[in-house]
Amino acid sequence: MGAVDGNGASIEGKSLILLFNHRLTRKQEEAALQTLNVTRIAEPPADLALIWREVPPELKEIHGYLEPIRRWLRSEARLGDYVLIQGDFGATYLMVTYAIENGYIPIYSTTYRMAVEEDERDDSIKVTHNFQHRIFRKYAR
Questions:
Q1: Fewest 10 Å CB contacts: which of 25, 42, 78, 105?
Q2: Whole-model pTM?
Q3: Among 75, 74, 68, 21, which residue's Cα sits nearest to residue 48?
Q4: pLDDT: is 18 or 7 the higher one?
Q5: In this structure, is residue 1 part of a structural domain?
């Protein structure tokens, strides 16, 4: 990474590290650059993105499963960097806790949600959800 101060915090601008199930929208990217004042957005490599997206529902304990994610985060983030964490509830909880304990700032994206229901020919209902980013919000303890 770049230069750091005596506390390990980047002096070249903050980064936004993504632990997120999909790509950022253009509006989310713009908001990150403007409101969070980040200079870099880092996505996990494809193999780690898959680990994050597909937490096996049959695992009784996922702490060990998430170790590759924690290792990657340690290599990417510096003190004071933002980490956008959204996904499996248990994985999100563990990674938010990890981020706070390691001096990162865990955040999530708030959205406006609009649902459209359509009656289908087979007597089922198709529901389509549209999400629009509003703000990034810090996780709090």
A1: 25
A2: 0.81
A3: 68
A4: 18
A5: no
Q: What is the 3-state secondary structure (H, E, C) of 63-129?
A: CCCCHHHHHHHHHHCCECCEEEECCCHHHHHHHHHHHHHCCCEEEEEEEEEEEEEEECCCCCEEEEE
Cα–Cα distance list, 86 to 4, 17, 28, 48, 95 (Å)? 27, 12, 14, 14, 9
Domain count, the chain: 1
CA–CA distances in Å: residue 69 to residues 25, 84, 96? 22, 13, 12
In which domain, by residue range, is 40 found?
A: 14-138
Instruction: Note whether residue 132 is domain-resident.
Output: yes
Q: How far apart are CA 37 and CA 120, in angstroms?
A: 46
